[in-house]
TrEMBL record:
<feature type="transmembrane region" description="Helical">
    <location>
        <begin position="184"/>
        <end position="201"/>
    </location>
</feature>
<dbReference type="GO" id="GO:0008324">
    <property type="term" value="F:monoatomic cation transmembrane transporter activity"/>
</dbReference>
<dbReference type="Pfam" id="PF02080">
    <property type="entry name" value="TrkA_C"/>
</dbReference>
<protein>
    <submittedName>
        <fullName>Cl-channel, voltage-gated family protein</fullName>
    </submittedName>
</protein>
<keyword id="KW-0406">Ion transport</keyword>
<feature type="transmembrane region" description="Helical">
    <location>
        <begin position="105"/>
        <end position="127"/>
    </location>
</feature>
<keyword id="KW-0868">Chloride</keyword>
<keyword id="KW-0472">Membrane</keyword>
<dbReference type="GO" id="GO:0006813">
    <property type="term" value="P:potassium ion transport"/>
</dbReference>
<feature type="domain" description="RCK C-terminal">
    <location>
        <begin position="346"/>
        <end position="430"/>
    </location>
</feature>
<dbReference type="InterPro" id="IPR014743">
    <property type="entry name" value="Cl-channel_core"/>
</dbReference>
<dbReference type="Pfam" id="PF00654">
    <property type="entry name" value="Voltage_CLC"/>
</dbReference>
<feature type="transmembrane region" description="Helical">
    <location>
        <begin position="73"/>
        <end position="98"/>
    </location>
</feature>
<dbReference type="GO" id="GO:0005886">
    <property type="term" value="C:plasma membrane"/>
</dbReference>
<dbReference type="GO" id="GO:0005247">
    <property type="term" value="F:voltage-gated chloride channel activity"/>
</dbReference>
<keyword id="KW-1133">Transmembrane helix</keyword>
<keyword id="KW-0813">Transport</keyword>
């Protein structure tokens, strides 16, 4: 449970799939992360920061003896605070919790994560003197007539994201087929880091220092290309071994390197102004994040906060959306969802759900869904569920037979914990928009 970034584990806990010992996670993840990341493995600290924050949130819930539904909100708050503190990007922390962990914009999650993210950012900056990880305030504004270059960049990042996910998952499969002990698997990237450190030390660690130096000085194109190849495969080997550490920072660096090479090529072959090379390098970070994690809003806002201005939001959104759509066309699944599925399939954790425990969860109603515009009494509801209330804007309605469900409503449902997974999936299909229903049978 302490291997990898920790984000799949947090997602599994929030969804009710996993149960963990929060104190062991807090202790072992911290020590393991410090050892592996400090030793130079190509891993980031942002994923572990999210899992550590989630563990603290769960610990507070257990200490205060809160209900399970409140515990999930506290876990989410801790996760968003961890990302906020890691990047000094509170807005990205909030949107990450909504887009990646909960998959819907619940008002309860929004308000609670906003408080935790802002508090974490305030504490880290005011008490510990931490500054934003990057400062890209020097970027020039890309004019609209240069946006065709961004369109091509977005498509390229979609392919890069597809390659990243495919190779990463394949590397895990190779490690698994070797049937080596965990200690031997971890030894492989540690030994490799010695050779990488001797020949190309910039490929060690997460890569934040390289991102800064790339955008403050000029590197030879051949060196950038070499660094890209080494960083890509060193990240695969490091993460695939199961070492505690994330892929947040490595994937951002890979995006920066690809964007830098793209800008150099555009300058050389199409005579594009060289001042845009740094812009492409930074904007490509958001595109790579969107293609790999499948969270385009988080990617765009994360880099927006790094730039210190919303002037580049249109360019960032353009590349993020195109990278996301390209990744969708290639049928590239979100990396953290696939990693969670593998975690469950491999039997590394025991899933325990108690029939006696009750759980509250929300289901958003989409436009044109099967239940949009219908009265409660006219809907064939699944068994073992109780519709507790309906959130409509700032109001909370008591459900009655004649109450009509409208698009944009949030259905608050109570069920047994052991029925949650099946019921949540069934209700989500009923409340989904027609585009989602085409791929479902119910």
């Amino acid at each position: 449970m302490v291997s990898g970034s920790g984000i799949p584990q947090v997602s599994g806990i929030v969804k009710g799939l996993l149960k963990v010992d929060w104190f062991k996670i807090l202790l072992y993840k911290f020590l393991g992360g410090v050892l592996c990341i400090g030793s130079g493995l190509s891993l980031g600290r942002e994923g572990p920061s999210i899992q550590l924050g989630a563990a603290i949130g769960q610990g507070i819930s257990r200490f205060l003896k809160r209900f399970r539904v409140e515990e999930k909100y506290l876990i989410t708050c801790g996760a968003s605070a961890g990302l906020s503190a890691a990047f000094n990007a509170p807005l990205a922390g909030v949107v990450f919790a909504l887009e990646e962990l909960h998959k819907n914009f619940s008002p309860l999650v929004l308000v609670s994560t906003m408080i935790s993210s802002l508090t974490a950012d305030f504490v880290s900056s005011s008490f510990f003197g931490l500054k934003p990880l990057f400062d890209f305030s020097y970027l020039t504004l890309i004019p609209l007539d240069k946006y065709p270059y961004l369109i091509v960049l977005g498509i390229i990042m979609g392919f890069i994201g597809f390659a990243f996910n495919t190779v990463l998952l394949k590397t895990q499969e190779i490690y698994k087929k070797t049937k080596l002990r965990t200690e031997i698997k971890l030894l492989i990237p540690f030994l490799l880091s010695i050779f990488v450190g001797l020949f190309i030390p910039d490929a060690l660690g997460g890569g934040e220092n390289v991102i800064r130096s790339l955008n403050n000085s000029n590197y030879e194109p051949f060196f950038i290309l070499t660094l890209l190849v080494v960083k890509f495969f060193f990240t695969m080997i490091s993460y695939g071994s199961g070492a505690p550490g994330g892929i947040f920072m490595p994937l951002l660096l890979i995006g920066t390197l690809v964007g830098n090479i793209y800008g150099i090529c555009a300058n050389k072959f199409f005579h594009l102004n060289s001042s845009f090379i740094k812009d492409f390098a930074i904007i490509a970070m958001a595109g790579n994040f969107a293609a790999i994690v499948k969270a385009p809003i988080t990617g765009a806002l994360l880099v927006t906060e790094m730039t210190g201005s919303f002037r580049h939001l249109l360019a960032l959104s353009t590349v993020s959306i195109l990278a996301y759509l390209t990744s969708e066309i290639l049928k590239n699944k979100p990396i953290y969802e696939v990693l969670l599925e593998r975690l469950l399939e491999n039997g590394y954790v025991k899933v325990e759900r108690d029939e006696e425990n009750k759980i509250l969860f929300e289901v958003p109603v989409g436009v044109g869904s099967a239940i949009d515009g219908k009265r409660i009494k006219d809907i064939e509801w699944p068994s073992d569920c109780l519709l507790v209330s309906i959130r409509r804007g700032s109001s909370e309605l008591i459900p009655r037979g004649e109450t009509k469900i409208l698009a944009g409503d949030y259905l608050v449902v109570l069920t047994n914990e052991n029925k949650f997974l099946d019921l949540n999936e069934e209700l989500s299909i009923m409340a989904a928009q027609p585009t989602k229903l085409r791929d479902k049978k119910w």
